């Protein structure tokens, strides 16, 4: 009997009010968290960008060298094994 009463009380208006309260609570939390966000200065952004670009080129050079070495070694090995 208690279930039937609880279900009957949960009308469309009550559900809409509950959804609205959830939405306003969520938006309040978002606003609170956004107040804690700090944006980096222009100097910090430039420094970080330079570090990322240099790191990308360093890794590219490293992987190129490794790929070149493996390719050269395998070509030499295949050439040596196919000569008879």
UniProtKB/TrEMBL annotation:
Transmembrane domains' residue ranges: 50-70
Subcellular location: Cell membrane; Membrane
Pfam family, one: SecE
Gene3D superfamilies: Preprotein translocase secy subunit
GO cellular component entries: plasma membrane
Membrane topology: Single-pass membrane protein
Main location (coarse class): membrane
Key words, A-Z: Cell membrane, Membrane, Protein transport, Translocation, Transmembrane, Transmembrane helix, Transport
InterPro entries registered for this protein in UniProt: SecE_bac, SecE_sf, Translocase_SecE/Sec61-g
Gene Ontology MF terms in the entry: protein transmembrane transporter activity
Gene Ontology biological process terms in this record: intracellular protein transmembrane transport; protein secretion; protein targeting; protein transport by the Sec complex
Xref: PANTHER family: PROTEIN TRANSLOCASE SUBUNIT SECE
Protein function: Essential subunit of the Sec protein translocation channel SecYEG. Clamps together the 2 halves of SecY. May contact the channel plug during translocation.
HAMAP family: SecE
Quaternary state and interactors: Component of the Sec protein translocase complex. Heterotrimer consisting of SecY, SecE and SecG subunits. The heterotrimers can form oligomers, although 1 heterotrimer is thought to be able to translocate proteins. Interacts with the ribosome. Interacts with SecDF, and other proteins may be involved. Interacts with SecA.
Family (UniProt): Belongs to the SecE/SEC61-gamma family.
Entry protein name: Protein translocase subunit SecE
Lineage, broadest ranks: Bacteria, Pseudomonadati, Acidobacteriota, Terriglobia, Terriglobales
């Amino acid at each position: 009997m208690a279930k039937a009463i609880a279900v009957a009380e949960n009308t469309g208006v009550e559900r809409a009010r509950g959804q609205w309260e959830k939405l306003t609570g969520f938006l309040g939390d978002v606003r609170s968290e956004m107040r804690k966000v700090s944006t980096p200065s222009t100097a910090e952004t430039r420094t970080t960008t330079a570090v990322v670009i240099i790191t990308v080129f360093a890794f590219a050079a490293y992987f190129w060298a490794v790929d070149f070495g493996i390719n050269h070694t395998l070509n030499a090995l295949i050439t040596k094994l196919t000569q008879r």
